[in-house]
Amino acid sequence: MNIASIITRPDNPVLGDTLLAYLASELPRAGLVKWLAPGTAAEIPFVGRGAALALAWERATEVIGDLPVDLNIISGINRRKRLLVADMDSTIIQQECVDELADLVGKRAEVAAITERAMRGEIEFAGALRERVALLRGIREDQVEALLRDRITATPGASTLVQTMRSHGAYTALVSGGFTLMTGAVAARVGFDEHRGNVLGLDGGKLSGTLEEPVAGADAKRQAVVELRERLGLEADDTIAVGDGANDIDMMREAGLSVSFNGKPAVAAAATARIRHGDMTALLYLQGYSRDEFATG
User: Fold this and answer.
1) Which residues, other chains included, contact 16 with Cβ-Cβ below 8 Å and sequence gap of 6+?
2) Over the stretch 231-275, which tens digit does the pLDDT of each residue have?
3) Which residues cross the membrane (predicted)?
């Protein structure tokens, strides 16, 4: 059984019964439309594989056209995952922390250009991170604390995603190529069970411009998924992973459901599902949660 998942922005509920009925008519052996959140998220079960599945995707995308809607076709088996592994920068939060830190020393443009190339996979991640971190030398710890408080914002729906999955028994981990100085605060704010990242060097309460080795890049993220899965006694199909940059691809390949959240082209191509319009609650809808099942506190 396949699921056609149809999601849009919560603040722009453009979905309607007519659109969904038309979409269902284009899917082979389609079942009943199920609303997960009126106007915002719905799903349609259908049966098809191989050429029939490819044709179903082609027809469904034609129906959606240019509407601001995320359409994904996913497996109807083992929908609700027991492990969430999420990237931090431009995924769980709306900023790139290293770029924001660079702004404190007037080097934002220089660092952001390196960040963009690294996230697209155009340059090697570890070397690019060391290069950027060297430019951050001299930033005080209290400046980092103020930045976290005043400029770092969670992506809409991130806390709801994490808290809802935890309330239904899932384990949640924030796994970042960024810095533990920041992942700790973000994990606590959003509600993750644990966090991992790179450790910045400190000298007299200031950033030294160095990182503890080895640098945690793409392979460290992948290993984190494998380690967490084995520790919890889970299979790959019990896992959902979400990210946006090239260093997330290996991590996402270890998950039964991988989600590109506003991801770079290479990430979108590698993912099971792609979210460009919905917020982070889209990951709950992909798992079949309805709006009235969301955790609110």
Assistant:
1) 39
2) 999 999 999 999 999 999 999 999 999 999 999 999 999 999 999
3) none
- Measure the CA–CA gap between 141 and 163, rounded to whole angstroms: 29
Q: How far apart are CA 36 and CA 45, in angstroms?
A: 13
Q: In the chain, where are the structural domains located?
A: 1-77, 80-297
Q: Is 99 a catalytic residue?
A: no
Whole-number Å distance between alpha carbons of 152 and 253: 28
Q: Is 219 a catalytic residue?
A: no
pLDDT (0 to 100) of residue 65: 87
Of 87, 99, 250, 279, catalytic: 87
**Block residue for tokens 């030398």:** 137
Residue 123 scores a pLDDT above 90 = no
pLDDT in tens, 36-85: 999 999 999 999 777 777 887 888 888 888 899 999 999 999 999 999 99
CATH of domain 1-77: 3.30.70.260
Active-site position among 11, 17, 89, 99: 89
What would be the CATH architecture of the domain defined by 80-297?
3-Layer(aba) Sandwich (3.40)
